[in-house]
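Batch manifest line 352
LIGAND: flavin mononucleotide
JOB: complex structure
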Amino acid sequence: MNKDGIKAGDRVDLSELINLFDVEKMAERTMSKMAYEYVASGAGDEWTLRWNREALDAIKLNPTVLTDVSKLDTRVTLFGYELPYPILIAPTAYHKLMHPEGELATARGAGAASAVYVVSSFTTTPLSEIAEVATQPLWFQLYVRDDRELTKELVQEAEAHGCRALCITVDTVVTGIRNREQRANFTLPNNVLTPHMPGALREQKPLTWKDIEWLQSFARTPVLLKGILNPADAEKAVQSGVSGIIVSNHGGRNLDTVPATIEALPRIAEAIDRRIPVLMDGGIRRGTDVVKAISLGASAVLVGKPVCFGLACAGAEGVTKVLEILRTELELAMALTGKANLASLDHSVIWR
Ligand SMILES: Cc1cc2nc3c(=O)[nH]c(=O)nc-3n(C[C@H](O)[C@H](O)[C@H](O)COP(=O)(O)O)c2cc1C
Ligand SMILES: O=C(O)C(=O)c1ccccc1
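JOB STATUS: finished
ARTIFACT:
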């Protein structure tokens, strides 16, 4: 129980949550200090964490009037599967820190909102149990472990449980310096386990392009690389044969002072030149942010922290609420920019 007399898992009044910033504020009241700091904090001096938001805010939109937006279409097809709208749940660790129902609540919330949920390697619930309650596709985020045989088994387990894509995180050779996390004495409670990642995230053994080839030699689902910021790496990704990339700076949590993802996105999109889908995450909080990301070359976006906060506020319903707020805002932003579908979101939507 914290100072407001609200404890983790208590119900909050969902009608008070009007936007994603409200969700964060409410979550801060319901979460333990340690859990809140773990989710909210960034690396180093948190420049990148702030830039993710500031760079999105600084972009102005260029609306077109008198176009027919009576039939809005937000669908996008990724790897043969049609999403009703281009927003996915980013992989985040330790959901039982945020809510006692953990990843089961996240999966239920994603299902109710018709969204793809990318399950973290550091899930605190076994994939088998998540798969049982999921009603929408799951993807799996992979941290490559020192033990390559165990890594292979994990990929095969994820595929056996129906995960439809594999996001290999490539920006976390080590985890970033997180001073707020250190000050809050972050430790995983004894009753919170990570069944697919026994042991802490230790320093990974070298993970190189050779390993990406190796992973693709047995993966039966599309492989995406998560954590690309550099156009030269984007080109290498295409050459390596992967099915997609995620432009990400890990939500500002790893290497501080790398640019905002929305700043990196246009260069990456140019390098990729539509050969494979480019997804993006980092700081997406408003429907207008989604419009900006798609206009600058993303096929879809992912949201991390807001989903954690929604989960902390109200379990599955909180997760659904976060996605529904963002989806509705996206629809309004498209209508008001005069663009009825995602294909018509291009550089002309950005004010220059
Ligand atoms: C609490 C938390 C845990 C995370 N855990 C993982 C993880 O296990 N694997 C991973 O690839 N990314 C992880 N990330 C990064 C997210 O997938 C994503 O890149 C980032 O949160 C997006 O930025 P946003 O939080 O501003 O939406 C985590 C992020 C947060 C906030
Ligand atoms: O916190 C993170 O961003 C992250 O990716 C992670 C997940 C589990 C263990 C350590 C770091």
